[in-house]
Every structure is written in C-alpha cells, then in structure tokens.
Design a protein that fits this description.
Blueprint lengths: L5 E7 L4 E7 L13 H5 L3 E3 L2 H4 L4 E3 L8 H12 L8 H13 L3 H23 L9 H31 L8 E11 L6 E12 L3 E9 L10 H10 L15 H20 L6 E5 L4 H12 L11 E5 H15 L9 H8 L13 H5 L7 H16 L45
Parallel strand pairs: 5-8, 8-9
Antiparallel strand pairs: 1-2, 3-4, 5-6, 6-7
Helix pairs in contact: 3-4, 3-5, 6-10, 10-11, 10-13
The site of zinc ion has 8 residues, from α12 and α13.
Length: about 425
C-alpha cells in the first residue's frame, strides 16, 4: 500500500450510507460528509473498505479528523477555485486527491506548516475555555481587539483625508467613492457573500455626483446549495433573478479588472501612482458585504493580489467628519455635532422613493429602494443636502439632488463673508 494513494471508502452511520475517499496509510485525510451527531458521538467508528472486504477492518477514531496538510490544501483550493466553491467537502476531497499526489514536497510545505499550527492551536484549545461555538475565549478577545484597532485606524485615515483636503483648500473638490453591492446569498459558515449587483459613484461637495458605474453580476451558480435562501432574499429585497438566469456580466475576472480600473482612475490621474489602495465608502451594515464581494470577484480573476488594493470605509463616519470640518471652516460651533446627529439625518433617506435614479431593471420591477445605483446616488444627495448649505454651494439637479428642489437656504453671490448668510447648522430639507 502506497502512502498517499486514494481509494474509495464507504461507511455506514446509523442513519445513512456515506461515500467518501480516504488515503491508504493516511486515513486522517478522510472528510466525512455526514452531519449526524450520532456519528460524532459514537467513536470509534468502524469503516468498511475494499480492504475490509479482504478481511481487514479499518478502525478510525473521530480524533483522526484533526487538521492535516491535505485538508488544509482542500480548504485553500475551495476558497480560491470557482468550481471548488460549488462542491461539497467530500467532492472537493475526491477532486483534490490526484492534485495532491502530483505535488512536490516543496509545494506541500505551506500546508504542512498550516496543519502543524492548527494542531498546536487545537492542543491549546484543550486547556483553554471555549465559547459555545468551540472558539477559545482568548482567540475571541484577540479578534475583538483587532476589530477595534482596525476601526480606529479607519477613523484616523478618514480624518487625515479630510484634513489634508482642508489644508490644501480643496475640500469642496475632494472626490469620494461610494460603493454598494446586492448579493444573492451568504454562506452559512463563513463571511462569504455572492455578488448580484454592483454600483459605484464619484462624489464631491462642489460637483455632487460626477459619474457612476453600475452593473449586474451573474456568478453562474448559487453557492453552498442555498437556493432557497437566495430566493427568499431576492423576493424580499432586490428581486433579481437567480443564477443561472441572472443578468449581467458572467466573466467575474474581467468585471473585477474593469471595476478596479474605474475606481482607480481619479487616484492614478492625480498622483501618477498605481499602488495606492483605493478607498471606497459604504454604510456600516454593508461593509462586510462590500469587502466580501470584492474578495469574491478578485479570486475569480487571474490573481487576487489586487484585493488588498480596495479598502472599505464607513460613509457615516465620513459624513460626520465632513460636517464637523465644514462647521469649523465657517466658524459655527460644532460641539453638539456627533455621530448620532449625522446618522439620524443620513437615515432619513429623503429620496428613497425618487424616480429616475435607479437602474432600468429596478425601475421596471418597482424595487428602486434596493437598487445599488439608487443607494449610492442617494448617499451623495443626503450628504449634499446637509453640508452644501454651510458652504453656500447651490444644489444642482441630478448632481446634488435628484430633481429640482426648493433650497432651504439662499446663496448670496459676491463677498465671501456675505455668502455665509444662509449657513444653517441643521440644514433641514423642507421639500419632503
Ligand atoms: Zn439596480
């Protein structure tokens, strides 16, 4: 029997027959596609194999499911392979077996290290307290601290961007990118969203919405067999048809390249450097969706090295920072201004039912509220409405507001000090 050789394996749990593949001399490769708790509880489990028919019984203990190099490779392969995502664990194991056999020791090295690390963590977990999901308390604490650090870093960066624009007297012209995604479904056991629609727009206080980019996405299939969830999500939100009947771009690699090119355009033109990360803004609720959808698209392309080039920031914090900075600029006290005040205004979403700002499909099916194009434009309109008055910037239809509206302030041309007469700290929108 050759180490690493695969042979079909059949075993019976108390409820059903399960087919899988195991490796001779390395039965710990086994990944069982059986979720019955009876199997997990009844160790040792007896597996009958072709060898068993020859009179040999292979007894595997559940402890053998501990992490190993091959399974680390399978996990990696599934994460970065478009077909892998649609396979169950046992199918992926069968598919990866021949690939693994053909790999050299050097190629297997990183996976062996990963398995070793996982084993160490597993040993540690036996001595540490776990939460109800089996995650160690210390690991949870580390993740929590990392999230807090990342949030602080993001807020520092937003302040730095706004301050830099203010110091160079270009705050009104500073462009911000807003991005939103609709998704078909979210993986049950991971932070993976399958993208359905993408929209982005460029916004500045002076020019309002200067351009936008919008596309439907057809990923080809629904992942993880979650068609029912995807149908339910679509019916209650964006109403987009599911793959394989989904509309839009099928080549996700090209779509990602085009999107990255569009997003990077202004950055590259300004400083001539192409390595700067692109910063996009979205709502706090959509941040995990946007991050995950960009990762999803990136891994469909030739390489995912550009995934890190897109950084996703909180638009609500940008709104607060802009408002406070603008009030400072015009000499209005801003002590009362905090994230709750700006959030309360932002969430009013005055233009939720405005026509003519969504894509053709969502206008037709009357789901403009959920259209990503409508979302990103509405964010720009809300920020314009609340801040442009302080800077005496007239609201232009389709740029700062979707339609011709009556301003709640007046702009007096001429001397700049007179131009601030209409400044209002609460810039209420009286049209709605
Ligand atoms: Zn749409």
């Amino acid at each position: 029997m050759k180490t690493g050789q695969l042979f079909p394996l059949v075993f019976t749990c108390t409820r059903r027959l399960v087919h899988a593949h195991a490796a001779a001399c390395a039965p710990i490769w086994l990944s069982v596609d059986c979720c019955h708790t009876c199997c997990a509880a009844s160790a040792p489990t007896v597996f009958s194999t072709p060898l068993a028919r020859a009179g040999t019984l292979l007894t595997l203990h559940m402890a053998q499911n501990k992490p190993n190099a091959f399974m680390a490779f399978v996990a990696d392969w599934r994460a970065f392979n478009r077909f892998g995502r649609g396979l169950s664990t046992s199918e992926a194991v069968a598919k990866c077996g021949p690939i693994w056999e053909g790999m050299s020791d050097r190629e297997r090295g990183p996976y062996k290290s990963k398995a070793k690390d996982s084993n160490v963590l597993e040993r540690e977990s036996k001595t540490e307290r776990l939460n109800c999901l089996g995650v160690t308390i210390s690991k949870m604490q580390v993740e929590k601290n990392e999230a807090i650090d990342a949030d602080l870093q993001m807020k520092r960066n937003i302040k730095r961007i706004v301050l830099k624009a203010t110091n160079s007297m270009k705050l009104e012209e500073e462009e911000f990118l807003f991005v939103s995604f609709n998704y078909f479904t979210k993986a049950l056991n991971g932070d993976v969203y399958q993208p359905a629609e993408l929209s982005a727009c460029r916004f500045s206080l002076k020019g309002g919405i200067s351009s936008n980019y919008s596309t439907m996405i057809n990923p080809g299939h629904i992942i993880f067999g979650q068609t029912s969830d995807a149908q339910d999500h679509s019916r209650t939100t964006h109403k987009l048809p599911l793959p394989p009947n989904a509309m839009g771009e099928k080549n996700l690699g090209n779509l990602y390249s085009d999107t990255l090119k569009w997003l990077s355009a202004s950055n590259d033109e300004e400083d001539g450097q192409h390595d700067h990360p692109v910063i996009v803004y979205t709502t706090p609720e959509l941040m995990p969706v946007v991050k995950s959808c960009f990762r999803y698209l990136a891994c469909e392309g030739d390489t995912d090295k550009h995934a890190e080039k897109i950084m996703v920031y909180d638009i609500c914090y940008l709104f607060l920072t802009l408002k406070k900075t603008v009030l400072d600029l015009v000499g209005v006290p801003n002590d009362h201004m905090n994230i709750h005040v700006t959030n309360s205004f932002f969430r009013r979403d005055f233009f939720e039912f405005s026509s003519g700002i969504a894509c053709d499909y969502h206008e037709k099916v009357d789901r403009t509220k959920y259209c990503t194009k409508s979302m990103v434009l509405r964010w720009g309109y809300m920020i314009s409405l609340y801040i442009c008055g302080d800077l005496a910037i007239p609201l232009q239809p389709r740029k700062h507001v979707p339609i011709e509206v009556k301003h709640s302030y007046t702009v007096t041309p001429g001397d700049s000090s007179l131009a601030l007469d209409g400044t209002s700290t609460d810039s209420g929108y009286s049209g709605y």
